[in-house]
Write a structure and sequence with these properties.
This protein is α+β, with helices and mostly antiparallel strands and about 350 residues long. It is about 50% helix and about 10% strand. The strands form two sheets. Strands 1, 2, 3, 4, 5, 6 and 7 form a seven-stranded mixed sheet that branches. Strands 8-9 form a two-stranded antiparallel sheet. A hairpin with a 5-residue loop joins strand 8 (about 340-345) and strand 9. Keywords: Glycoprotein, Ion channel, Ion transport, Ligand-gated ion channel, Membrane, Receptor, Transmembrane, Transmembrane helix, Transport.
Length: about 350
């Protein structure tokens, strides 16, 4: 009697006689492709600095503007630097916009030179950080071996509880695979799913990778619009039979013939095609997924690091926010009467409209 196909293990080989390999299998992991949220995609030009750095930049601009106004008040020069104009100068130069005549005295001039140098270094740092961010997100940084999976920090990972894969990892002589097994049973022990469906649900939530064997990993990756990693390591399927079976050699020889003439491959392909034909042919059919996908289209496809539509949308939104601030300021000034025209009545008295 034959039993199988099963992956070959030392314990099974000790009790039963194995045939020649029937089929090669690969061990991979299923994951959800990491991506930025829509907020980070649109406003990704802001991630060059963290929130604290941005706050310190604006505080520095305010301090420079106030200092310039104080220096002008202590010793006024030919150019007027009131607090409002000083702040306008500091923030204007920060964004490479406003230019004005330099102050008269050396103390104020030195302050402006220091601020110019600060802005120059800031622009260089911004460009360097943004280029690094773009290149980092364009590169393929997914783990593709047991060692890289072991040392990455994005994914938590586990195999299915009491699965054959877990058993093989625990008995593996490969140090990297065995280290993965130890990591799962120590750091990620609470993440080990009781079933494949439970593991897939964790993968769908994100930041979790389910270690599984082919063809299950490919099938469920297609079924739930997930990703399947490159093969981490390989194994084989065999049939098991009682030891010292008289016709064991004949069975192995027939399996060799079926493998060489493609019969086994046709059988497996036929079953795989039946399963795959029931799976969705398109992923990301939801409107939100389509919108996020469209945001990743480059404006000009020069390279993998080209600026995407999301960045342009973010800059456009930032510009709209700026225009809204201008409109609010204009309305406040109007209500305060700043734009009221002075007119003269028939008695030559000024009339405020």
């Amino acid at each position: 009697m034959l039993v199988g196909p099963f992956s070959i293990t030392s314990n099974r080989s000790a009790v039963f006689q194995a045939t020649v390999p029937v089929r090669s299998i690969s061990y991979t992991f299923i994951y959800r492709n990491p991506s930025l949220s829509w907020r980070n995609q649109i406003f990704q030009f802001l991630v060059t600095f963290d929130a604290t750095t941005w706050a310190l930049i604006f505080v520095s601009a305010a301090i420079v503007g106030a200092s310039l106004a104080v220096l002008h008040r202590i010793k006024p020069g030919s150019t007027s630097y009131t607090l409002r104009l000083s702040l306008l100068f500091a923030f204007g130069y920060l964004f490479q916009g406003v230019r004005t005549r330099p102050p008269t005295y050396a103390s104020s001039q030195i302050l402006i030179i220091v601020w110019w140098l600060f802005c120059l270094i800031l622009v260089i740092a911004f460009c360097a950080n943004y280029a690094a961010f773009r290149s980092f997100n364009a590169l393929e940084n997914l783990p593709n071996s047991p060692i890289t999976l072991l040392h990455q920090k994005y994914f938590k990972y586990a195999y299915i509880k009491e699965s054959n894969m877990g058993y093989l990892m625990g008995k593996s002589l490969d140090s990297a695979i065995y280290s993965l097994y130890q990591m799962i049973n120590t750091k990620f022990k609470y993440m080990i799913p009781n079933s494949r469906d439970e593991g897939i649900n964790e993968v769908i939530k994100g930041k979790f990778a389910l270690l599984d064997e082919s063809p299950f990993s490919e099938y469920y990756a297609r079924k739930y619009c997930l990703k399947s990693s490159p093969s981490l390591w390989f194994g084989t399927y065999v049939f098991f039979m009682p030891k010292k079976l008289s016709y064991g050699a004949i069975i192995s020889e027939e399996i060799k013939k079926m493998r060489s003439d493609g019969t086994l491959e046709k059988i497996y392909k036929s079953e795989e095609n039946k399963m795959m034909s029931t799976l969705p042919t398109y992923c990301g059919a939801m409107l939100e997924d389509q919108a996020l996908g469209a945001m990743l289209n480059p404006l000009i496809d020069w390279s993998d690091y080209s600026v995407e539509l999301a960045t342009a949308v973010g800059i456009f939104i930032a510009s709209l926010i700026g225009l809204l601030i201008v409109l609010i300021t204009l309305l406040v000034e109007y209500l305060l009467g700043i734009y009221k025209e002075a007119m003269i009545d028939k008695d030559c008295h000024p009339v405020i409209l």
